[in-house]
Amino acid sequence: MSGEAMLVFDEGLTAYDFGHGHPMSPIRVDLTVRLARALGVLDQLKVVPAPIADDALLQTVHTAEYIAAVKRAGEHPDVPDLDHGLGTDDTYCFPRMHEASAHVVGASVEAARAVWEGDVVHAANISGGLHHAMPAMASGFCVYNDPAIAIQWLLDHGAERVAYVDVDVHHGDGVQTVFYNDPRVLTVSLHESPTTLFPGTGTAGETGGPDAEGSSVNVPLPPGTGDAGWLRAFHAVVPDVVKAFRPSVLVTQHGCDSHVEDPLAHLTLTIDGQRAAYQALHDLAHEVCDGKWVATGGGGYAIIDVVPRAWTHLLAIVAGQPIDPSTAVPEGWREDIQIRFGRVAPSRMTDGRDAAYTDWSTGYNPDTWLDRSIKATRDVSFPLLGLDPTY
């Protein structure tokens, strides 16, 4: 055990629901909690309910006008408000949308509060990670930006520097936008190239505003990147920039839509590569900020085969009791999947892959898109953080 850990969760968080047919089904959160419970992971965590964020808390990131628009949209879900990104093809309106979204925010802020005030060392909110929401607009399935609000809460309560690392397949554009000119926040995002995937941002050249140069680090990855390439990129950039920034606390977003089976993107990671990333972030938190770690969920649309296993691994690592990848998926959970969905669930907590990678120090290969991307990020971001981009 690496210190007492917490999961912020209650059934009300599954009310963040865009409705039948939408890829971001709250079933994925429910199935994750059920699998984590079946494997005994929840026995290693302090599980607490989530408060609902009030307007004052939401307004630390979002405009009052936008919050009012979300409330109206929840009262009249058949009336789109495209000026605020509500009722679009990806971010539908639904009844009580404001309340459900504010509940997700409350969960992430409670996780941040518990870590910052020393109640626990690590805390997670797997229903969170809604990283695309902008101060005055919904985007990409995200209504309120819970990671950004949690980070702002930390700053407002004494954190001198916060590092945010986003491993979702999509660029963490909303969080980057909120803190782009704030030197107290380092945002790091590894994501599929903006030339091939929403939201079309996150180039290596996006390095922070005029008062915060070096505070944004982006690693755009070529479609098709798998475990070995992704982990090569991660280890070539993330540990060095986070260590150089010296954060007071680490906040991470764990969208698992980088998986090869995810229907909305084009990376090819496995559960084993994702698990390795979670462990690396856990270890980094202990190395740079005394273990202070706030972890959220994020994207992930293979809701049966991928999300529950990936995030159960995440919760086990948050708890300080990682699950052996060869562990069998409990039969009761698999039977439930068969009954509810008519599907055969995975039998193991692994995809059977070795999450090995070749370290950047072995040399740069200019003939590969991956290495050119890594080098571009190192060349532009490392000097701004006082780092040498070469080995």
UniProtKB/TrEMBL annotation:
Region (Disordered): 196-215
MF (Gene Ontology): histone deacetylase activity
Known pathway: Ketone degradation; acetoin degradation
Assigned keywords, A-Z: Acetoin catabolism
SUPFAM superfamilies for the chain: Arginase/deacetylase
Coiled-coil region list: none
Matches recorded under InterPro entries: AcuC, HDACs, His_deacetylse_dom, His_deacetylse_dom_sf, Ureohydrolase_dom_sf
GO biological process, one term: epigenetic regulation of gene expression
Residue span, Histone deacetylase domain: 22-316
Family: Belongs to the histone deacetylase family.
Protein name (database record): Acetoin utilization protein AcuC
Organism: Kribbella voronezhensis
